Amino acid sequence: MTVIALDVGGTRIKAGVMAPDGTVLHTEHRATRAEFGPDAVLEAVLGCATELSRVYAPRAAGLAVPGLVDEASGVAVFAANLGWRQVHLQRWLAKELGIPVAFGHDVRAGALAEARLGAGHGCRSFLFVPVGTGIAAAVMLDGRAMAGSHGFAGELGHLVVRPGGEPCPCGGRGCLEALASAAAIARRYQQATGAGEISGRCDITAEDVQHRAAAGDQHAARIWREAIEALADGLAAAITLLDPERIVIGGGLADAGQPYFGPLRAALAARLTFQRMPEIRPAALGHQAGCLGAALLAQDLRQPPGQGPAGGRDS
Predict the structure, then answer these.
(1) Which residue, 138, 186, 192, 298, has fewest beta-carbon neighbours within 10 Å?
(2) Residues 73 and 153 in one domain
(3) pLDDT tens across 60-103, in order?
(4) CA 107, 100, 11: angle at the middle one, nearest 5?
(5) 280: part of which helix (H) or strand (E)?
(6) CA–CA gap between residue 84 and residue 52 (Å, rounded)
(7) Is 125 found in the same domain as 9?
(8) Do residues 130 and 263 both lie within one domain?
């Protein structure tokens, strides 16, 4: 069956259409319009879904959203960047479109796509870790993502790796995200060098910090090294608890390639004793993972996993 899918991010909605054989027929991006309030985001979601439905006549839709998500009840519990609190998204969108709607967390949806179509394919257990503006994780076992008893499993970015360390937006201190995310790398470099103090803005990115580190900038090299060491600490804890066969790293920092993965593998190996070192692999699906995962969830509504073209890719 043809399905439509939407992956709602803090600034953009990634949308797509998937044919019954798993072929992607159409993709597009739209602004969430979050700056106009939570209702404007709902209008943007509905507008996009309605237009795609009119053109492609889908049998179902998939919706992936960020933040704290109760997948069982179809509720966006809290999404700070979108202004959502206790929004019954699944029920609302299904009523508006008149078709079944699958609902999921954006990271777990991305992990599902990597499991069936990407870097997790053929792997019974793996950890999917997107490292971008923030850090999250999804624990995959036999093709399914663990949600936890309250739907909040996988918040690796808020594992405390430096007790009493830098403040984190979650309210804690020393969280992994406050040291190792792309946003943290750029922020810490700005604080160390004063970049942007005159203009009042900083256009430095984590990619810039990595390039400056390679060119011999000592501040950049230290901050890049500390980010990798913090991530290795967080992953070592996850390995000890979960014993994954593979770790799939996604997000913008995965694009750094060997300057990121080489030191990360070495730092992680140095921290493990009795644990088995998992394979560390970059994600294969990039920024489309969440949307593809939402499409797969929608197909699963009418087609059980393990049957048909999409389900047949399940690991």
Answers:
(1) 192
(2) no
(3) 999 999 988 999 899 999 888 889 999 999 999 999 999 999 99
(4) 40
(5) strand 279-282
(6) 24
(7) no
(8) yes
